[in-house]
Amino acid sequence: MKLFFKYVTLPICAAIALCLLFTHPACTTPPEKNTPEYVTTAFYTAFREKNFSKAKKYATPESAGLLDIMQTLGEKAENALIADAKADFSLKTLAESDSTATVQVVLPDHTKAIVMPLVKSNGIWKVAFDKSMD
Known about the structure:
The protein is α+β, with helices and mostly antiparallel strands.
């Protein structure tokens, strides 16, 4: 029985543990793609291109729900959050802690700046733009 545990059960348990470890979202997201700036850039770029399904990948579940509503209703994207899809923008991190961050999206004409709140969920940064509507 000890041999069975040593040569069969133990390696199987170790393999399962390794699979769980390496498939956890925080372990599969490269560190350079898990920063508030990267997530904000990816979200905002997809959002202003009206690619809501891609934007949802970078959003909290609550914000993803709002994106679903926008997509379903077919809004024309004429609100202040969506600028010209070809326009460049810059980012400025205003605050960052272990679980929250605030990144400012500055439009090229510098007349508008959009503040994007982010939260860390299961080790992954997500845009929580629903929080900016409070």
